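Lab manual, section 2.4: Encoding a predicted structure.

Procedure: take the sequence of the chain (124 residues), apply the prediction step described in section 2.3, and record the output as structure tokens. A sample record is shown.
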Amino acid sequence: QVQLVESGGGSVQAGGSLKLSCAASGGTFSAYAMGWFRQAPGKEREFVAAISWSGGSTYYASFVKGRFTISRDNAKNRLYLQINTLNAEDTAVYYCARAQGRWTSTAAHDYDYWGQGTQVTVSS
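Recorded output:
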């Protein structure tokens, strides 16, 4: 059974940084692309970033504007999201998800396993 557990969220002031982690267990982590999504209060879940199975290809939502970096460590079965220059609009629950294949996708329906989420709250 595949399990994804996010950590690293918290409350930060605008302009600060956070590094989210996602620990994967079960399955073969290195065989699949991974992604980060987020859901703000009253809004739909949206794509944030994705990384291919090897880490050689990444893709970001347009609102990221160079502030986020997705990475992975296949030896440790870990996915990361470094978030810099946080602003109030980044307040959301952040979810990691495992794709159904090796390559990146922005569509939630292309991901079959999801974590429980980690809360990020940014105060101005």
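Check your result against the sample. The mean pLDDT is 96.
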